[in-house]
Amino acid sequence: MTPRRVLGAVAFAAVACLTAAAPAHAPQGIAGTPPVTILYQNFPNPFPTATSPTTCLWFDLASSANVTLAVYDLRGRLVRTIVPSSQIPRTLVAGYYGRGSSGVGGGCDARFAWDGRGSDGRTVPAGVYLARLGVDGSWQMRKIVFRGP
Questions:
Q1: What is the pTM of this model?
Q2: pLDDT tens readout for residues 13-48
Q3: What pLDDT digit, counting tens, does each position of 98-136 carry?
Q4: Which residue among 36, 76, 113, 116 sits deepest, i.e. has the most Cβ atoms within 10 Å of its Cβ?
Q5: CB of 57 closer than 8 Å to CB of 98
Q6: How far is CA 38 from the centre of its chain?
Q7: For residue 23, which of 97, 106, 126 has the smallest C-alpha distance?
């Protein structure tokens, strides 16, 4: 193999490695993994609005972890589990979550949106709820204001 072919093969292998490790949900224009794990404030808040029947939940993971993301009422009762779900495993790789493809759904991945319904499919009463992100035993919470149907 010539030196040029060796360099080409090494470069191809490096790109393949980086592509496999990079999460598919990274926001456009942002490379690498997030520097910290954080749960962002949901948006829109309050919801629903004239333009959005759901609220979007974004979070970043600085490293691979076991994750739970759920909505609770103010008495601490579980309303709905977002992660894990049938579409999202409990163990997630480092990356950016909740962002949708640009221009579709206002930048919200529907798998990480809450529509104001409980796990039973019924619409919950209007009020204040809590989004709670659990990552390997640490917790972060954000207030969600649901206006009702």
A1: 0.79
A2: 333 333 333 344 566 667 789 999 999 999 999 999
A3: 998 654 445 899 999 999 999 999 999 999 999 999 999
A4: 116
A5: yes
A6: 10
A7: 97
